[in-house]
Design a protein that fits this description.
2 copies of one chain form a homodimer. Chain A is α+β, with helices and mostly antiparallel strands and about 280 residues long. Chain A is built from 9 helices and 14 strands. Helices cover about 30% and strands about 25% of the residues of chain A. Chains A, B: One of its GO terms (biological process) is carboxylic acid biosynthetic process.
């Protein structure tokens, strides 16, 4: 199901985008992926806030929030698939040499079966060097570190490298071994009753699902920390999780081929916390 | 003018690409831009070689060379614009969750007036940190350094940063001040009768125009070197040039606000060398 910013529905299987759209030719645009459950989008406002933030980082026009909200409603009102929807919002710089009118749409898709399986079973991840160091994001904003741009080829290449290594996910690290994020997820480490995630100032995306979980956890008396995590810390943690809108809270049971402590029960607790927000 | 890999022409102003094409959603594809003069594409084979190399770096299927050659001919046979064409070849991973059929096309466009002006007048450039160090490209191939992918948002952001600084182009550098490349060009430094360009092992694109110029220069008795260049070296050179298919050989007259030695005559010599190849 596909809706455009002008308030119309379109056929997702029909061509919609021109070949000279800069979103295609240059990966020059931004996106968000929102989880919808039983017709209700989760964290819609934080997602729209982040879309606007990414757009600002890339000197794009400000996305028309009301038009995106209308497109979201249109997709959901006409959705005929399963209980859950992965709802993608896309906003590009428009066609090359055009009048600057951005291209934008909301696209509803089914949740991939693989992701559903990983929510229940957890997954194996590998660490991969992202080639960035602390300080770079602030020093060199043109590197767009922490912007959710359409230029995700590296994120996809990292996932293929994980598969070559017999895993299905990636934990990006700095060259000096500090934990960053997954290619499409945020990392959360748990020790006792403390949740920790790395700071977005390292050049990573501020997570909407991580924020929702931290909100719920704080309310229930857990401690939450946003601070650097060394890769070695992950092996001694009570649990390591990759979280995102579509994957929710997914357990990492194996890292770089080594089993992590069993976090099955902890996972259930975190899922309950997260679901209590909705 | 637009031609598809199935050997048909299409309307470039009409939608052609689905919203769930991974080239759009993930910048997950590769491209080349070829200069065509008087109906003849320049360096077509090196461009097709590099398209295949970029595709291999991204685990894409091998582009169908004959189909791309046919699309190139179709565009040029039907071109009704100026003497020169910027001919873009695009090859993406196809639609998300599809059968793996890539999307591919050849798109002919006019050369931007700005580029034509810069060929004659030269340009001002600024150095910007690309945030990579020597060795990273080989150590972390998933970072796709040196692949000509559709994920060019950073390259475009760097050009906007240059404009904010009153310049129109960028010389990317490592954090330690070694010269890399432009966002869409190769850097060549000239001292006496020696042309120097940085090695692609630094994680930069091997240049087709640079290779053509080096070929011609070697034939005419110039020395050519592929070796690291320190930013400071650029100020003492006889000439600094950004070269690419569409811009040909373009003189950098100002770097980070400082005037470089006048290289007008040297520029003419290099242009003659380059044009002697065709």
């Amino acid at each position: 199901m596909l809706a455009l910013l002008d308030g119309t529905l379109a056929d997702p299987d029909a061509p919609l985008v021109r070949v000279d759209d800069l979103g295609l030719l240059r990966g020059d645009g931004v996106f968000e992926t929102i989880l919808v459950v039983d017709g209700k989008p989760r964290e819609l406002d934080p997602h729209l806030d982040r879309l606007a933030r990414s757009a600002a980082m890339m000197d794009l026009p400000e996305p028309d929030r009301a038009a995106f909200e209308r497109a979201v409603s249109l997709v959901l009102d006409n959705w005929t698939g399963g209980r859950e929807v992965a709802l993608k919002l896309v906003f590009t710089r428009g066609v090359e040499g055009g009048d600057g009118t951005p291209t934008g749409f909301a696209l509803g898709m089914d949740i991939p079966a693989k992701v559903i399986g990983q929510r229940a079973d957890g997954l194996a991840a590998v660490t991969l060097d992202r080639g960035i160091e602390p300080g770079l994001a602030e020093r060199a904003p043109w590197l767009l570190l922490g912007a959710k741009s359409l230029s995700y080829a590296v994120n996809m290449a990292a996932l293929r490298e994980a598969e070559r290594r017999g895993a299905s996910e990636v934990v990006f690290t700095t060259s000096s071994g500090s934990v960053l994020e997954g290619p499409t997820s945020t990392l959360i480490m748990v020790r006792g009753r403390t949740l920790t995630t790395p700071p977005s100032t390292l050049g990573i995306l501020p997570g909407t699902t991580q924020a929702a979980l931290f909100r719920a956890a704080t309310r229930e008396g857990w401690a939450v920390r946003v601070e650097p995590i060394a890769v070695d810390d992950l092996y001694e943690a009570d649990g390591v999780f990759l979280v995102s809108s579509v994957r929710k809270i997914t357990r990492v049971h194996t890292l770089d081929g080594k089993s992590l402590p069993d976090s099955t029960e902890l996972h259930e607790e975190l899922v309950d916390l997260y679901e209590s927000e909705y």
